[in-house]
Amino acid sequence: MANKNLYIPTLIGAIFLLSLISTTTAQEKPVTDICLGCICEAISGCNQTAICTGGVCGLFRITWAYWADAGKLTLGNESPESDQAYPNCVNDPYCAADTIQNYMTRFGQDCNNDGVIDCYDYAAIHKLGGYGCKGDMPHQYYQVLDTCLKYHQSGNHLDVRNNAK
C-alpha cells in the first residue's frame, strides 16, 4: 500500500487545488479532501482509466441519477441537457468531486447513528444512496475506506494546503 499512499495525497491535493478554479460550482463543501480521496480509493482504487461502464462513470463511479440529484454540474459552458454533459462532468475528477459535494449537501445525514456526520456517513451515502445509507456497506469498500482514513488521520499525509504554494 506504500505506493498507493503516496498517490492519495497527490490526488487529494489536485482535487483541492483545482476545485478552487474549477468551472463547476459546488453549493457547499461538506466533504473533506481526505474523505474524497478515501472514497475514491474505496470505490475504484482511484482508477482514472475507467471511463463509463455498467451505468457508472469516472473514478468515483457516479451514476446519471446521482449526477442529476446533485444538480447536473457541467464543464465550461456545456448545457446540462447535452448528451455528453453527464459523462464529461463525472469523468473529470474535479467536476465529479463537486458533484459529490452537492450530493452530500442534499443528502448528508448520520447513516450509522453515531451522533456525527462524518466521512463514514458520506461514504455510505455515496455507495448506498441518499435514501439507503443506513444499510450495510460492502465489506471490501468499508475496509479500504477505513484503512485509508486511519492512515491519513494518524498524520501520514501531506498538508495539501501548505504544499499548494
From TrEMBL:
Q: Which GO terms describe its molecular function?
A: lysozyme activity
On the tree of life, the source organism's domain of life is Eukaryota
**Keywords carried by this UniProt record:** Antimicrobial, Bacteriolytic enzyme, Disulfide bond, Glycosidase, Hydrolase, Signal
Q: Which Pfam families match?
A: Destabilase
Kindly list the biological process annotations in GO that this record carries.
defense response to bacterium; killing of cells of another organism
Asked whether the keyword Plastid is assigned, the reply is: no
- Identification of the protein by name: lysozyme
